[in-house]
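hey so i finally got around to running the thing on that chain from the lab meeting. sorry it took forever, my laptop kept dying and i had to restart like 3 times. anyway pasting the input first so we r on the same page abt which one it is
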Amino acid sequence: MNILRSTETSSFSPMESKKRSKITVIGAGNVGAASAMRILEAGLGDIVLLDIAGGIAKGKAEDLMDAASLIGHGCKITGTSDYSQTKDSDIVVVCAGLARKPGMTREELLNKNACIVKDITRNFMKFNHRPVVIVVTNPLDVISYVVYKESGLSGKRVVGMAGCLDSSRMNLISSRFLEAPLDSFDAVVMGTHGETMVCLTGSSKAGKEPLARRAPKDAIDRIVEKTKSRGAEIVSYLGTGSAFFAPSAGVFRMVKAILEDSRETMPCSCLLNGEYGVSGIFLGVPVVLGKEGIMNIVQMSLSDDEKRLLNAASNSISSQIAQLNI
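ok and heres what got predicted. didnt touch it at all, straight out
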């Protein structure tokens, strides 16, 4: 009696030899492990889960493989602390670093995580020539800049995961405030992954209308403030650590768009070279994602107030980069 092999999973073959994409996830904490699980169980490719604590990475990888015949994905995951096993990765996801504690700002993490990620980047670049790198470690926009500078990769191949997460959070908060179906909202968040994020209430949609037209200004202001503080709110509930289910969903969405070359548009942190009047730093803007990473940066029309807020966000990032001590 073959209990686990229903007709729905009859094509499952864990020993399948055809070449699959290779994704390395660095950091086997909550975000890294959850990201690995989403990618693995969607069958997007084989995964290397790497952590300085090799036993934790190995244990989580083996635990995920125990579910293979239940899920039926046929991909493999390897847990390790050995960077040589990351060789020839299509995508490297950097999740490693210190997590925020209650009361700690993203900026307070700056130099500690910059040093950690600088070392990580040096190590994985020894075995990879042109991966697309997705950065998750906070403070996101500055750490993306560190990876870009240390890796020597084109700016189009280094992209930070934040804008899609913040936009998803804004969708949920808008849905709750306006008591409308979640799928009727399409938020756009730019700027930093932090206190200077820019919620585009005029470009964000509530049904067929701009969000700004669906509620009084005080309600819109509350949605914006709630979106900005959402990460800190979750940190305060958890007590230790920070959000990981939604961030891992953001990673998954980006990995899928890149591997499938779907040319999907979503807000991400990327290197700007004159777009939006900003140059030389990473900032969250809408981009088109495909097999080479960032295929195009989408230029949106902004109001004068939105331009002012985006300028403040870029100044914040520039200031943080100037404070790097690595």
